[in-house]
Amino acid sequence: GDDTVINHGDVVVSASLDGSAGSAEVIGISTGAGNDDVQNFGTLTADFVASTAIDTGTGDDAVTLGAASNTLGRVQLGDGDDRLTLVGGAQVRAWGVMGGDIDGGAGTDQLVLEGAGSYVGGLSSFERLAKHLPGAFELSSLPTLEQLTIDAGVVRVDGDYAFGANSLFQVPIAGSGAHGQLSVLGTATLGGRLEVARQEGPYVDGTVYDVVVADQSIDPASAFGTVALPAASGLVRFEYRQLAQQAQVVVDVDPFATFTRDAVQKSTADYLDRLLPTATGDIARVLDHLQNLPATDLPTSYTGLSPMHYGVTRRLAIDGMTAHLRGLEQRMST
To answer: Would you say 201 and 291 are in contact if contact means Cβ atoms under 8 Å apart?
Structure first.
């Protein structure tokens, strides 16, 4: 059936052999067939040379290893569409190998990394990886994935990494300069499709987002087959560049004053341009809204924001109310 196992304590499973004959295998948590949920926030030790800490068997399983957890033994997700989440400082090790041994098994399996942390060891049979929350997560190696999504922070690979011809790489970029990044100690071989998502602005002209960084180099014979950038607006455009060690997105932002029709609009736009580099809170949201507008909508938007516009509108409203009250007074006196 569908099992749920949650550990906040210390679990130790061990075995011993009398003499040199015979064999044994130690399994810490085994859930069998079903869509299982296993969460380790404590210590799980399969204390034997041939040991498995977690075996979820067949099914669409979810395994979470918490930030303070320590898992000793292989992690096997079995057949099915499984998800393994490593949170922050989760420690995973296996007997007889350097570091851990994690196998996603058959199916479409996803590795989720949260925050800052590291994992040393084998990763096999994972088709997808998603990185959430700020911070760098370091991996000793990473096999070619079908889909790599870095919502926040950095995925750091201590070696080479090659995108597949049909790989999908997704990263967001924000006006604050925050963005997802793949960082490779060795050589990065590009390929497949790069999708860049626009997040909250406002954007400052010339901001550079290094979405791939290779300490050694980006293979000059490689490139993303397709690059999907955010749609341009009246003021903001995005450009992709591939350099010797970086694949980057650069933002090109026109001044607000580019699209004005009269002195009132220009005065307002000039003031907005002065606010842009340090804008926060409500002001930043207004500037972001303006940067998302088509060019044809900008002049009237500046008029609506102008203090002079508010003053004229208020004066017209007061004059109209005064005329109404005078007319009412005259009718009452007759």
So the answer is: yes
**Span 16-33, pLDDT tens digits:** 666 565 566 788 899 989
Please tell me the distance from the alpha carbon of residue 191 to that of residue 182, in angstroms, as a whole number: 14
The confidence score (pLDDT) of residue 23 equals 66
pLDDT at 225: 98
Hey, CA dihedral for 191, 195, 201, 205, is it positive or negative? positive
Answer yes or no: pTM beyond 0.70: yes
Residue in the block written with tokens 């397709």: 226
Contact 85, 50 (CB under 8 A): no
Alpha-carbon gap, residue 303 to 301, rounded angstroms:
5
Beta-sheet pairing, 187-189 with 217-218:
parallel
Token pair in block for residue 144: 């070619």
Query: H or E stretch including 326?
Result: helix 307-333
Q: How far is CA 106 from CA 57, 60, 214, in A?
A: 11, 11, 31
C-alpha dihedral sign at 204, 205, 211, 214: negative
Q: Sign (positive/negative) of CA torsion 105, 57, 107, 197?
A: negative
Task: Kindly state the DSSP code that residue 231 receives in the 8-state scheme.
Answer: P
* DSSP summary character for residue 305: H
- Inter-residue contact 112 to 86 (CB < 8 Å): yes
- Residue in this structure with the two tokens 């929350």, named with its chain if needed: 133
As a whole number of angstroms, the distance between CA 73 and CA 78 comes to 15
Low-confidence ranges of the chain (pLDDT < 70): 16-24, 49-50, 96-98, 306-334
What is the pLDDT, as a whole number, of residue 315? Answer: 44
Tokens of 52: 């498995």
Task: Tell me the C-alpha distance between 111 and 128, whole Å.
Answer: 6
